[in-house]
């Protein structure tokens, strides 16, 4: 695999670099480095304004087809954009859930009416999205979803609870997996809905995290409503659509994640150099391995995105790689800090970047499908190994 820039890619890199240099000025220059895991509360308004500036100049939804408002950028160009974005320390984007998860899902499974209604708003960063998958009794076991939806006239009525819903407190819409056929179980009888968040039937309750922030939320649906036409795909066939979304999340979505990971590794390395920890050969080795792991992740994403259609079960490899890598970055940050990393920087609970990274990444190997589940998927659906016995199948 040749990862060097072609002449066309080199020209594209110069274009991206020049635009970022010219526009990261004033309030946007002051917003450099804001946002990211455990820090989504930072400068939200200015980051939203930045997203909309990107949209005005055609820098959102780069890989989307032109007919849907994108630039049809190649995978290589998309990665170049994110690499230059990281180099510039531009603020972390706020519209990534719509751009990287829902948008590709609607292009693959949505109706022309849904595409016309929702895709332009995502391209323009005018509507933000959140993901209504996990529930108190259905986390990695997503097929155990209990939230229900019933059709009343020309509307669907939803009841239930979702949990760990990132950015629900600022989202305009939520894509929700709910059970429409109570006679079915597991993967059958589920449907994929687009639900407006600003309505009396929806209540959002923030979840306080170890970091002291609360970008995760509980979302309660109490006779919440959405139009009959806001089902993506066929009624009762939502599992296929939901798996498609997860495939997109573990594909091009990880390119955006790598922007944050590279920035975090650079900060860890600089802290190690400034504090003398870089003199420790064991820590130097861990930093080198972290850099190598990031390069391996980049190559793996290249390969995954080189296929046709939505990524399949092999996308679980990427989820397993990035979540483990990010957790190890948090542990590396604490190792570089040494004993000082065990003490808050000030009252009441003021954390530095390394401490926040360590605490937040405890969740990475769980949300979006735990590492244990990803290993099972890889074993059974990619490698063709025998299926792991389910609890009810184990005889005593």
Automatic annotation (TrEMBL):
Q: Which UniProt keywords apply?
A: FAD, Flavoprotein, Oxidoreductase
Q: Which cofactor does it need?
A: FAD
Note the InterPro entries from the entry. Answer: Acyl-CoA_Oxase/DH_mid-dom, Acyl-CoA_Oxase/DH_mid-dom_sf, AcylCo_DH-like_C, AcylCo_DH/oxidase_C, AcylCoA_DH/ox_N, AcylCoA_DH/ox_N_sf, AcylCoA_DH/oxidase_NM_dom_sf, Mycobact_Acyl-CoA_DH
Annotated GO CC locations: plasma membrane
Residue span(s) of domain Acyl-CoA oxidase/dehydrogenase middle: 130-223
Q: Describe the location of the Acyl-CoA dehydrogenase/oxidase C-terminal domain by residue ranges.
A: 236-383
Q: What domain of life does the UniProt record list for this protein's source? A: Bacteria
The molecular function terms of the Gene Ontology recorded here are: flavin adenine dinucleotide binding; oxidoreductase activity, acting on the CH-CH group of donors
What are the Acyl-CoA dehydrogenase/oxidase N-terminal domain coordinates in residue numbering?
Answer: 7-123
- Family in the record: Belongs to the acyl-CoA dehydrogenase family.
What is this protein's record name? Acyl-CoA dehydrogenase
What is the species listed in this Swiss-Prot or TrEMBL entry? Saccharopolyspora flava
Q: What is the lineage of its organism?
A: Bacteria, Bacillati, Actinomycetota, Actinomycetes, Pseudonocardiales
């Amino acid at each position: 695999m040749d990862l060097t820039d072609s002449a066309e890619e080199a020209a594209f890199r110069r274009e991206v670099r020049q635009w970022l240099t010219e526009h990261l000025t004033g309030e946007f220059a002051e917003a450099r480095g804001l946002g990211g895991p455990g820090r989504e509360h930072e400068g939200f308004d200015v980051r939203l304004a930045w997203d909309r500036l990107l949209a005005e100049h055609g820098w959102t939804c780069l890989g989307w087809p032109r007919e849907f408002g994108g630039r049809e950028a190649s995978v290589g160009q998309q990665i170049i954009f994110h690499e230059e974005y990281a180099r510039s320390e531009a603020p972390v984007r706020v519209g990534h859930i719509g751009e990287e998860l829902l948008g590709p899902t609607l292009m693959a499974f949505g109706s022309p009416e849904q595409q016309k209604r929702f895709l332009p708003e995502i391209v323009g960063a005018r509507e933000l999205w959140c993901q209504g998958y996990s529930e108190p009794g259905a986390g990695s076991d997503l097929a155990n979803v209990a939230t229900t939806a019933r059709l009343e006239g020309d509307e669907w009525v939803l009841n239930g609870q979702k949990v760990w819903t990132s950015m629900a407190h600022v989202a305009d819409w939520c894509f929700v997996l709910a059970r429409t056929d109570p006679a079915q179980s597991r993967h059958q009888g589920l449907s994929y809905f687009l639900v407006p968040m600003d309505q009396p039937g929806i209540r959002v309750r923030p979840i306080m995290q170890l970091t002291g922030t609360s970008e995760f939320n509980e979302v309660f649906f109490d006779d919440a409503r959405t139009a009959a036409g806001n089902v993506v795909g066929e009624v009762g066939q939502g599992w296929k659509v939901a798996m498609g979304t997860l495939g997109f999340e573990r594909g091009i979505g990880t390119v955006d994640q790598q922007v944050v990971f590279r920035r975090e590794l650079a900060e860890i390395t600089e802290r190690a150099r400034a504090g003398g920890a870089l003199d420790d050969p064991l820590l130097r080795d861990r930093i080198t391995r972290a850099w190598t792991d990031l390069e391996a992740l980049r190559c793996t994403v290249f390969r995954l995105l080189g296929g046709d259609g939505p990524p399949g079960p092999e996308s679980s490899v990427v989820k397993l790689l990035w979540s483990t890598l990010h957790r190890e970055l948090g542990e590396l940050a604490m190792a570089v800090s040494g004993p000082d990393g065990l003490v808050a920087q000030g009252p009441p609970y003021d954390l530095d970047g390394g401490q926040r990274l360590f605490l937040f990444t405890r969740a990475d190997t769980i949300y979006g499908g735990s590492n244990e589940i990803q290993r099972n998927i890889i074993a059974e659906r990619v490698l063709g190994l025998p299926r792991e016995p389910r609890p009810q199948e184990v005889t005593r």
